[in-house]
Structure formats: structure tokens, C-alpha cells
Design a protein that fits this description.
By secondary structure, the protein is of the alpha+beta class. It contains six helices and 16 strands. Strands 1, 5, 6, 11, 14 and 16 form a six-stranded antiparallel β-sheet that branches. A hairpin with a 5-residue loop joins β8 and β9. The longest helix is centred in the C-terminal third of the chain and has 30 residues.
């Protein structure tokens, strides 16, 4: 009898695995900088600073007072070194902000991965550091070609009938129903801090999955399994939903969050990330439909075009403010450093 029960359980679990989809939500080995976008009029550097596939032009939402040259510098991307580390309010100080950032890191096993340095407060206080993209990853950005200067050229695809620019390992997975599990390839250095993955659904709701602690050495795949996932179909809440003109549900990568408990050591923390994977149920099955509803009505095209514009305006204004602040920033070396320590710091543009 026990044997039969065990076989039934194994069959049920296997059936659930057969129908689940697996996809890489974001792959940092694809986000290495491979093109150069000028950051100021005096910028003569040639080292890449942006990722071609994920370049976004926020100059199109800027006002009319900027010159064509200034608009040409209004570019950002998901290049690894463009990501940000944001602390909770009680941990946000000048030392923690200045000493926390991301870097490209060469891995013998994977190639280029994301390296993160976080400088936690030294005092006995709970601290949270969120590693987030420079802008909210767009779900409806159409496919496009990008030249060597970061100019976005019109492409053949779009976010409606084909894959958008940020699908296929760049931060967006569409047609996601119930998530069964999340996995992260992360490099540990025996730090006792907790790792969380932030996921954002089509309605803008954030879901935080606690992956575990980083108190190990080397690469490991940490997994979060959804405790509310129901494997047996007969036990699920079965409903029918309208197929059209509802848009396709998706999951957007919102970043990582590192939690440091008050009784844990502060100061510098280092880790590395390779990718984030999802195992999920499809929201809508792929079927061969007799009529192309979108071709007749165009409702989703209009709706998602409006969302694309909204997404661009939302992140574009913040990027413009940062661009203006960067242009106002002093470029000369700081004389006290030269006087007190006997060396000249590298200027910002060099």
C-alpha cells in the first residue's frame, strides 16, 4: 500500500513538472557593455559603457530647450555598471552610498557576470540594500537595431506580434500564470546576509521571494519554491477568463535585495550574480485560432502603445534630472587629495 501511495505522489509531481515552463528571466552574461555613448562634450573615452541590446533613448521625452548634441547623450541601458544600490532610509548615509556599486566581473565558468559591492553601516542596525536596474524594465518596448553611438533605429519587430526587446533573458517573461519556483545562480563568500528576488507583475504588484542566506563559498543555485503552488489539477480553483482583448500577463525583474540583520557584521559585502530563472504555468495556451482578433480590432496595439509611452515618460524624467546633475558636476581633481596624499585623482571623464 505504501508503495502505491509513493508511486502516486511521484506521478503527480512528475505531471506537474511536465506541464511547467522554464525560462531565464535575466542573464547578466548578456549585459556586458559593448558600445560607447558620450557622457559630456569633453568625453573622449572609447571604453564601452552601455549595452547595445538594452539601450533606451530618454531624450524623446525631454523638453525643447536641449541641443541635438545634448539629446544624443541622453541614453541609458541595462549595462551591469549602470545598475544602482539603494538603501533603506536608516542605512542611507554618504559612506554607504559612495561605497556601494556594481561592476563587471570576469568568471572563468560563466564569462562576464555582475559583481556587487555593498557597504553596510557598521552599527548594530537592520539594513536593506536593493540592487535595481537604472530604470524599470519596459514590457512593451519594440525590437529595434542600435548603432555604435547608441542611436535606436527602427526595427522590423514590435512588442505586440513578436518578442519585445527585453524578453528572452533581458528582464521580461510573458505569458506567466502561477509561478512554481524561482532560482538564482549566485556566488557566496560566507556572508551571513539574506538574498531576496523582486518580481513585478503586469499590474505593478511587487512580489519578494526569499532565496536563502549567502553563508557559503563559491557558486550555488538558490531556489524559492512557491508554498501555495497546487500540483494536483483537480484541487485548483478552475475559472474561465476572456481571451481578447486582455493583454498577456508577464513578470518583470525588479532587482535583488540583500538583508543584513542588526547582529551581523557591517562594512563591505561582496557577491556576484549570473542569472535568475523561473518555472511557471502558462497563462494562455498556444492555439491555432481561426480569426486574428488583433488584426481586426487593434485594441491591444493601441493599449500597449499607450503603456510604452507611459513607461518611457516615467523613467525618462528621472534620467533627465540625473543627466543635468552630471553636466553640472565638477571635473577638476580635488586639490586636498593631491596636497594631503601626493597624487592626482582621475577626472570623471577619464
Amino acid at each position: 500500500m505504501k508503495r502505491i501511495i509513493i508511486l502516486i505522489v511521484i506521478a503527480s509531481v512528475t505531471a506537474g513538472m511536465l506541464f511547467a515552463e522554464e525560462a531565464i528571466l535575466i542573464n547578466f552574461t548578456r549585459l556586458a557593455a559593448d558600445i560607447r555613448v558620450r557622457t559630456s562634450e569633453a568625453d573622449q573615452e572609447t571604453a564601452p559603457n552601455h549595452n547595445r541590446r538594452t539601450v533606451m533613448d530618454y531624450g524623446q521625452v525631454a523638453g525643447g530647450s536641449y541641443t541635438p548634441s545634448q539629446r544624443g547623450m541622453m541614453r541609458t541601458s541595462l549595462a551591469i555598471e549602470q545598475w544602482e544600490v539603494v538603501f533603506n532610509s536608516s542605512a542611507r548615509t554618504i559612506p554607504t552610498i559612495s561605497n556601494s556599486f556594481t561592476r563587471e566581473a570576469p568568471s572563468r565558468q560563466w564569462g562576464t557576470v555582475m559583481g556587487v559591492r555593498i557597504h553596510f553601516p557598521s552599527g548594530p542596525q537592520f539594513a536593506k540594500a536593493t540592487i535595481q536596474p537604472p530604470f524599470q524594465i519596459p514590457a512593451y518596448e519594440p525590437m529595434a537595431e542600435v548603432d555604435d553611438d547608441g542611436n535606436i533605429l527602427p526595427g522590423n519587430g514590435n512588442g505586440i506580434t513578436g518578442a519585445s526587446r527585453f524578453e528572452n533573458e533581458y528582464g521580461i517573461v510573458k505569458n506567466v500564470g502561477t509561478i512554481r519556483s524561482v532560482a538564482v545562480n549566485v556566488y557566496g563568500l560566507n556572508f551571513p546576509h539574506g538574498l531576496n528576488v523582486i518580481l513585478i507583475d503586469a499590474d505593478g504588484n511587487e512580489r519578494i521571494a526569499f532565496m536563502g542566506y549567502l553563508n557559503f563559498d563559491g557558486w550555488a543555485e538558490l531556489t524559492w519554491n512557491n508554498p501555495q503552488y497546487v500540483f494536483e489539477v483537480r484541487d485548483r480553483d478552475l475559472r474561465l477568463y476572456p481571451l481578447y482583448p486582455d493583454t498577456m500577463p508577464f513578470v518583470r525583474f525588479g532587482g535583488f535585495r540583500i538583508d543584513r540583520d542588526a547582529d551581523r557584521p557591517g562594512g563591505d559585502f561582496i557577491t556576484y550574480f549570473k542569472d535568475v530563472k523561473l518555472i511557471y504555468d502558462k497563462a494562455v495556451l498556444d492555439t491555432d485560432r481561426d480569426i486574428n482578433d488583433e488584426e481586426v480590432w487593434g485594441i491591444i496595439n493601441q493599449r500597449e502603445s499607450e503603456r510604452r509611452l507611459f513607461e518611457m515618460e516615467r523613467f525618462g524624467q528621472n534620467q533627465i534630472l540625473r543627466f543635468l546633475e552630471y553636466q553640472r558636476q565638477a571635473r577638476e581633481p580635488w586639490e586636498p587629495l593631491q596636497r594631503d596624499f601626493g597624487f592626482t585623482p582621475t577626472p570623471v571623464d577619464e
